[in-house]
Amino acid sequence: MVISAVFLGLFVAIISILFILAGNRYKLFIEDNKADFQFLFLAPASLCLIDRLNLMERLSSLIAKVQFKVAILYSAGKQVPQYTKMFIAQIISIALLCLAGGSAFAVLNGGDARLVVLAIVLAILIPVFSIRKLDEKMDKRKQDIIMELPEFASKIALLVNAGETVQQAIVRCTMMKSDVEHPLYKELTDAVTKIKNGDSFGGVMEDFSKRCGVQEVSVFTTTVLLNYKRGGNQLALSLRELSRDLWEKRKAISRKRGEEASSKLIFPMVLIFIAVLIIVAYPALRIM
C-alpha cells in the first residue's frame, strides 16, 4: 500500500511540476499540430519533458527514423519536425498515463504492487508498439499505392496515345479521383496543384516521387520524365510495359492480403468449432 501510494504521489508530482513549467508556452504549438494525435491534455507536460531532457537531440538517430515515417504518413511538409515532436510527446503522454493510472489502481486495490509493475511494463511496451505501428501503416500505404498505380498508368498511356500531353493526362486522371481518399491520389492532387501554379513539371514529379516513398512510383516518374518530351507512341509504349509489371505486383499483393485474411479467420473458426462441439457433445455425455 505504501509503495503504491509513493509511486502515485511521485508521478502526480512530476506531472504537476511539468505542467507548471510548461505554462502556456506550448498552447500555440499544440493547436497547430494537434491533428492525428490523442491525449492532448497531457501534451504540455510531455513537450516540457522533451525540452528539459533535450530528447530530440539525445535520441537523434531514433528520431530521424521516426521523422522519415511521419513525413511520409502525415505529409506534414515543412511541419515534419513539429509533427515528429508531437508524436514523441504522445508516446510520453501514454507512458505517463500508464504509470499514474497503474499506481492509482494499485492504491484503490489495497496497495497491490503487481499493478504498479504492470503499469511500468505497459509504459515500456506501448511506446515500442506505437513506433512499430508506424511501420505497419507505412507497409499498408505502400501496398495501397502499388494497388492503384497500374490502373493510373494505364489511363495515362491511353490518353497520351489519344493525343494528350502527359501533363494534361495526369491532371485529367487526377481530377477524376480528386474526391477519393487514397494516398496515391492525395499526393497526385498536391502535384497537380503545383503544376497548375506553374511549377516545373520535372521538379513536381520528382517531389511527388519523394513524398510517396515507394520504389514503383519512382520507376513511374522516371519513365514519364525520360519520355514525356518525346510524347506519343514512345511514352505510351513505355507506360504500357510498366503497367504490365505493376499489374503483376498488384496480383501478388492481392494474393498476400487474401492469405492474411484467411489466417486471421482461423482462430474464430476454431472457437466456433469448439462451441459447436460442446453443444453437440454435452447432451450426448449427459445421456451416457
What would you say this structure looks like, in words?
Helix 7 crosses helix 8 (166-176), helix 9 (183-196) runs antiparallel to helix 10 (201-212) and helix 10 (201-212) runs antiparallel to helix 11 (215-227). The longest helix has 56 residues, at 232-287. This protein is mainly α. The chain has helices at residues 2-22, 27-33, 43-53, 55-58, 60-74, 80-108, 113-161, 166-176, 183-196, 201-212, 215-227, 232-287. The protein is flat and about 80 Å long.
End-to-end Cα distance: 53 Å
**Morphology call:** flat
Please give the largest β-sheet. Answer: none
Q: Report the radius of gyration as a whole number of Å.
A: 26 Å
Order of secondary-structure elements: HHHHHHHHHHHH
- Give me the secondary-structure category: mainly alpha
Question: Which percent range fits the helix content?
Answer: over 70%
Strand % is under 5%
Mean pLDDT: 79
Poorly predicted ranges: none
Number of helices: 12
What's the count of strands? 0
SSE layout and pairings?
Elements: H1 2-22, H2 27-33, H3 43-53, H4 55-58, H5 60-74, H6 80-108, H7 113-161, H8 166-176, H9 183-196, H10 201-212, H11 215-227, H12 232-287
